[in-house]
Amino acid sequence: MRRYKKAFKPTKTLFRDVCEIDLSLTYKEKVFMSIEDGREPVDSSDILYREVLYIDDKPAAYCELYDETFNRVYVAICVDKSFRGMNLSEKMIDRMFKTVSETEDLKNKKFIWLVNRDNNKSIYLAKKYGFKTTSSYKRLKYRGWNFMEKWIDTHSHYNHKKINDLKLINEMFKTNDKIITLGTDIESNTETLRLISYYEDMYGMIGFFPNDAYVLEEDFVGKKTSEDNWNVFIHQLINQKLVGIGEIGLDLHHNNFGKKDCEIKGPKAIEYQMKYLEKQLLLAKDLEKPVSLHSRDAIIPTREIFDKFDEIKGVMHCFSYGVKEASYYLDKGLYLGVGGTITYKSNVQLREAIKETPIERILLETDAPYLTPFPFRGKTNNSSYIEYVILTIADIKKIEPNEVIRITNQNAYNLFKFDKKTA
Questions:
Q1: Under CATH, what is the fold of the domain 151-420?
Q2: Global pTM?
Q3: Alpha-carbon torsion 129, 134, 140, 141, what sign?
């Protein structure tokens, strides 16, 4: 029996490509090949240790313990298919328990065994040895955390027909201290005003989304209509429960301006988007209101606009860029809005950016009904799912989830000044 401390780097799933071996192989197969090839162990912040059982100098089984998040340790026991039927799993478990009993830091941890759903032998052994089991590492990791405080959802769209429901919204306030709902066009702006007048702890922001700002452009709707729409917008902003202007920004992903029969695409569309982003930013500056900024596939044009401002008061909604862009926006005085996308397995760049961002500059959000976090991705999003965002940030920052809530709530109060708003 040989022990490797801090060996081959796994991640939050057992099937991550970790070695330069055939990508069609599973994580388990790669580990066995790496051990057999005598590869040097790779340092990892997740893995606690790996023990390998050799038979005739061939690796027959290994056990991994990794990720101590929230006082839980996850156990993976793998047996090479050539050595099945030799009760090697039991031997690995016995050895693991001996290691645990000799390691002070592991004695009081909760151990969870990662098993395949159809692996009856592993499930039997888990019960025999008193393990809890899961086939989904992240689901179990996130289940049942005791949140001591309510959080604040700083970006949602409860004016959307999918979630504009009295029963649902009332349910949301069981876990949310406050909710900000945002408009993106004339209709949703109007509905936002209705919602914030009805719900005491719901606040709003109104603005024109990149392609929806066509209602302000005389080339699309005529001079009088465009002026009337702008004047109505300014008048609406008098409402004291409107805490900012948004959702505004640039969207080169869809690369359009206007809707249906008056829609255009291409460089001219981006030119219009930039024109009305700048116009709304100038209005926010004049009114001393924060903004909620949308920037999708638009790093360069967003910077072109922002470079005209010494400081911008607001938040980069659903921040999706890397460390470099995060630093730029933070230097401009902006907060970074973090929602369900941070839980997506492929979003490594965002997690790296948030790791480098002071938590005092982070805001929680959902973008409901969109961008539902794992493990509910594909379902309609709502403000209760922020708990998965909180737990992911806590994992990245290595702090308690309740501390994430406390700090981000204070961030929201600092930016939006809820205590000064009245209905």
A1: TIM Barrel (3.20.20)
A2: 0.70
A3: positive
